[in-house]
Amino acid sequence: MDLFGDLRRMNKRQLYYQVLNFAMIVSSALMIWKGLIVVTGSESPIVVVLSGSMEPAFHRGDLLFLTNFHDDPIRAGEIVVFKVEGRDIPIVHRVIKVHEKGNGNIKFLTKGDNNEVDDRGLYKEGQNWLEKKDVVGRARGMLCWL
Description:
Blueprint: H1 3-9, H2 12-40, E1 46-48, E2 63-67, E3 79-82, E4 91-100, E5 106-111, E6 130-131, E7 135-143
Antiparallel strand pairs: 1-2, 2-7, 3-4, 3-7, 4-5, 5-6
């Protein structure tokens, strides 16, 4: 038997039921995702590590769980996920230096644990520091890809 033959024999009620079930699954997943965005304060509460730049801390395929509460100060040593202008894919690296101004403005520098140099070469041209607006989230947990 072929799949299309089975679909043609299916009555309309069964077809509507399956379409409704699929729509419920998709809408539930979207609601969970949007809920995570609200609870974590991050536009992307879960990210996948795409490169080996943070080895041995994180490996390709590891899942990171993020939060991004703006009241928490960024400190050296913590792992942030950030986006830079002109790049679509967020980067996961460690904060190595923090520069705090008297007015409360914070700028910071990042570097991958497995990289030889800091990330200034990854930032947009002329940019030497990141700001809080560049941060997608901070790593709060991980799930290893074995």
